[in-house]
Amino acid sequence: MSKKKVKTNAMRILELEKIEYIEHSYPVDKDHVDGITAAKHIGKDPKTVYKTLVTQGQSKEYYVFVIPVAENLNMKKAAKASGEKKVEMIHVKDINKITGYIRGGCSPIGMKKQYSTYIDKSAKSIESITVSAGKLGYQVELSPSDLIKASKAEYADLLM
């Protein structure tokens, strides 16, 4: 378990649920908040570092999708996974209002509200997955099954 000074909401939840994780931190450049840059900084293969995307369906419900940082979300597959006819990405300006997190620091763990969450099925084949810890410059690495548990997610086919 990590014992550093910075404790994000996601880290507190992982500790409360007794889920082991490794904390990674990296220098933040406000112009480069993308996941590929984060993966390089922490020395991880981008195939094992996942980004958190938030969408809204036609029903006005929000859905969270967690996919590898170098990949794109297939919106038709996302809609199918969530049971919607169509989903669209939320506006960047709405991220904090909806999730409690900011762009580049949005974690699938510990959002303001529990939204239906889907992790791309590619995570099943990797030993550990790294996602945002809920603050720019911080990531948590844990097993995919522990991420499923902590984010109350399920696997889905989500990629292009």
Q: Which superfamily, in CATH terms, is the homologous superfamily?
A: YbaK/aminoacyl-tRNA synthetase-associated domain
CATH architecture: Alpha-Beta Complex
Q: What is the global morphology? A: globular
Tell me the strand order in the biggest sheet: 4-2-3-5-8
DSSP strand tally:
8
Mean pLDDT: 94
Instruction: Specify the biggest β-sheet.
Output: 5 strands, mixed
Q: How many domains make up the 3D coordinates?
A: 1
How many H/I helices?
A: 5
End-to-end Cα distance? 35 Å
Helix and strand succession?
HEHEEHEHEEEHE
What share of the residues does DSSP label as strand, in percent? 25-35%
Whole-number radius of gyration? 14 Å
Structural description of this entry:
This protein has helices spanning 9-16, 35-42, 75-82, 95-99, 144-151, and strands at 22-25, 50-57, 62-68, 87-89, 116-120, 129-135, 138-142, 153-156. The termini are far apart. It has five helices and eight strands. The strands form two sheets. A five-stranded mixed sheet has the order 4-2-3-5-8. A three-stranded antiparallel sheet has the order 1-7-6, sandwiched between helices. The chain has one domain: YbaK/aminoacyl-tRNA synthetase-associated domain (YbaK protein, Alpha-Beta Complex). Belongs to the prolyl-tRNA editing family. YbaK/EbsC subfamily. Its EC number is 4.2.-.-.
In short:
Helix content is 23%, strand content 27%. The chain is of the alpha/beta class and 160 residues long.
List the helices and strands and how they pair.
Elements: H1 9-16, E1 22-25, H2 35-42, E2 50-57, E3 62-68, H3 75-82, E4 87-89, H4 95-99, E5 116-120, E6 129-135, E7 138-142, H5 144-151, E8 153-156
EC number: 4.2.-.-
Domain YbaK/aminoacyl-tRNA synthetase-associated: 38-149
Family: Belongs to the prolyl-tRNA editing family. YbaK/EbsC subfamily.
